[in-house]
Amino acid sequence: MQLHFDEAFEILGKTIPFILLRLLVYGVVLTGTLLWFGGIFLLFQSWPLPGPSWLAWVFGGVIFATVIKTLRNYVLYLLKAAHIAAITRILLVGDLPTGMEQLRYGKDLVLQRFGQVSILFLVDQLVNAVLKAFNRSIFSFIGFIPGVRLLRGFAQSVLDYSAGYVDEAILSYSIVHPELNPWRSARDGLILYVQSWKTILASGLVLALISYALVAVVAAPGILLTYAAGGPIRGIGFAISMALALFVKFALMDPFALTSVIVTYHRAIEGQTVNEEWDRRLEALTGKFRQIKDNATAWDPPKPAPAPVRIP
Predict the structure, then answer these.
(1) Candidate ranges 44-48, 93-97, 147-151, 172-176; pick with highest mean pLDDT
(2) How far apart are CA 43 and CA 37, in angstroms?
(3) What are the distances in angstroms from CA 307 to CA 32, 94, 117?
(4) d(CA 26, CA 28)
(5) Beta carbons of 258 and 162 less than 8 angstroms apart
(6) 22 in helix, strand or coil?
(7) Buried b (16+ CB within 10 A) or exposed e, 100-131
(8) What are the b/e assignments for 246-263, b being 16+ CB within 10 Å?
(9) pTM above 0.85, yes or no
(10) Is residue 122 pLDDT above 60, yes or no?
(11) How far is CA 91 from CA 147, 270, 311, in A?
(12) Are 188 and 301 in contact (CB under 8 A)?
């Protein structure tokens, strides 16, 4: 199994502006999260409104989840998609605009391809659902192996997590093929994935395990120190330690995993053509794949806002 870590490092090093912007965005999110829940903790101590004080956590949690969902679905997702576009350009052509122009280039390319962020997000949601359905079906092939069923819960969570990397590789495939509408390229990209799933998923699994291990290693010292201190600081220390570990994962590990799986995906499908038999199998496996095909047939391209950007 070839993981292409060296090529991924090289490509990632050419997209430093995206890494810096991710650090800035996640740094702001981390700071805002700590301040928000710190404020809720203080409010919890002296609840001024009618009703039990735990309502402070309920209301605060709902508001926080709504803000984070909006941020993730639009701002963070567009940033990630623009980064995928830049990675794809380097993978195919070897060059990219320098400095902050990379950010504009990636955003314009994504919006030209999909028209709207909402369409991009919807394509990703359906692709991710198909990937999870297919990955779950893998257990029907390996369920006879001793111990597999006992570890199924953990293994399934790792498979689902790695699917998040694979759907980004399929987005990259869509950018490579502007002659296909986004839904048709998603359909073809999914079929090409299942034709090479062992190689691509193995890469995603290794990276998912590394991500879990990284979170544990970064969080462990702070958790152990605050646990030894005891008292009310124990819970606060645990929360801060986990927040910092997740910050490192989201801001630094995820871009590398993203790049590595994209490279592995494109290398694995080189020279392959879409096998229509897998079209029928995926449609029988999940109705989400049928939705992708129906959307491909009914596609009515929106008018592109940015100037045309093409990958030679």
Answers:
(1) 172-176
(2) 9
(3) 35, 22, 16
(4) 5
(5) no
(6) helix
(7) eebbebbbbbbbbbbbebebbbbbbebbbbbb
(8) bbbbbbebbbbbbbbbbb
(9) no
(10) yes
(11) 39, 13, 11
(12) no
Instruction: Please state the separation of Cα 293 from the chain's center in Å.
Output: 23
3-state secondary structure at position 3:
coil
Q: How far apart are CA 233 and CA 227, in angstroms?
A: 8
Chain center to CA of 50? 41
Q: Where are the alpha helices (DSSP H) in the chain?
A: 5-13, 16-45, 55-70, 77-92, 101-114, 117-137, 139-142, 152-176, 182-195, 197-229, 233-248, 254-269, 276-285, 287-297
The CA angle 192-197-203, to the nearest 5 degrees, is 120
Compute and round to an integer the Cα radius of gyration of the chain: 21
Whether the CB-CB separation of 91 and 266 falls below 8 Å is answered with yes
pLDDT confidence band for 256 (50 / 70 / 90): very high
Length of the chain: 312
Instruction: Provide the terminal-to-terminal Cα distance of the chain, rounded to the nearest Å.
Output: 30
Residue with tokens 């490509």: 11
How far is it, in rounded angstroms, from Cα 128 to Cα 49? 42
Task: Tell me how far apart the alpha carbons of residues 55 and 117 are, in angstroms, rounded to a whole number.
Answer: 35
**Each residue of 21-59: b (16+ CB within 10 Å) or e?**
bbeebbeebbeebeeebeebbebeeeeeeeeeeeebeee
Residue with tokens 């689902």: 160
Give the distance from CA 235 to its chain's centroid. 29
Which residues have CB under 8 Å from 148's CB, separation 6+? 139, 142, 155
